[in-house]
Amino acid sequence: MARVIMHVDMDAFFASVELQRHPELVGQPLVVGGKGDPSQRGVVSTATYEARVFGIHSGMPLRTAVRLCPDAVFLPVDFTAYRAASARVFEHLQQVSEAFQPVGLDEAYMDLSHRQADAVALGAQLKRDIHADTGLVASVGIGPNRLLAKIASDLEKPDGLTHLTADDVPGRVWPLPVRTLHGVGPRTAERLATLAIETIGDLANMPLARLQAVFSARHAHTLHAAAHGLDDRPVQTERVRKSIGRERTFQQDCRSSGRLAYEARVMLDDVHGRLQQRALAARTVTVKLRYRDFTTHTRSRSLGAATQQIDALAEAVEQCLFAHHLHRAVRLLGVQLSGLEVAMPDRQGG
Ligand SMILES: [Mg+2]
Fold first, then answer.
1. How far away, in angstroms, is 143 Cα from ligand 1 center?
2. Same domain flag for 296 and 262
3. Cβ 325 vs Cβ 236: under 8 Å
4. pTM score of the predicted model
5. If you measure from the C-alpha of residue 13 to the centroid of ligand 1, how many angstroms do you get, rounded to a whole number?
6. Is 158 a domain residue?
7. Which of 54, 82, 87, 100 suits a disulfide with 69, CB 3.0-4.6 Å?
8. Cα angle, residue 163 at apex, residues 160 and 166 outer, rounded to 5°
């Protein structure tokens, strides 16, 4: 069966998270890297598109970046903030498919082979949901394998949504520089240049035997296959789930705290059923509310130990709910269980 793989890649992720905290910097060239002091050692982690215009890119020494654009604003990296933003983004991915493979904080692959027909619509919806919830922009690529999905997500960055099929490879992939291919680093690119290979198309048209004269048999084969858009690496999903949850958007904003409490309990019962099915226990309960103005707030309660007891979980849900401002109109309600552990059947029940 043909596969459908989606690659989600956040645009200028670290810099975008910083811009949310420093909205006054929007539109200015911004560089996030090291300690944020370009007179010290350190490299660029992320630069906004306004800074990239000056030739600044990830991995470049901060000193070079400040020479290219003396007016750029430099900020230190703050992984705590990026991890928190990343967790929120990945929550949305999990709503689409439980089978996703994170790559660092701002990228992930998903296998959507079971949803062939609506993969593009799912990608569009995912981009909208991530943006509505976090204010961050994602580029989404869809393809028959990881290689093409990743190339696709990069093709129309930022804010891209690109679908590549095997038929698109000659027209859209072959003109790209060979460095675009996964696994082609600077050293491989240098050796390819000795064969006059600059683009992926050059590589695709090179007889395998000539590649084998320069590279090991295995490497030559991988390069040849990649240039033809072939890649059979699976999406490797994490074996142990980190959370189980449900969300619901109301047809009409909900203004009644009684109704919210009722809906939260219905959702908890559903989530609890899945917890039991998987023989797991949960330590932390999180209730998420999105208000009419699209601001989203979450409240969590952690129990002393992971449990499967519905009463204890329900009480924690109620505590979370009433820690929210229930006088506001609510458009989305979410209930999530995390801190999952394998349940101890002899000590825990219903
Ligand atoms: Mg990215």
1. 18
2. yes
3. no
4. 0.68
5. 6
6. no
7. 54
8. 145
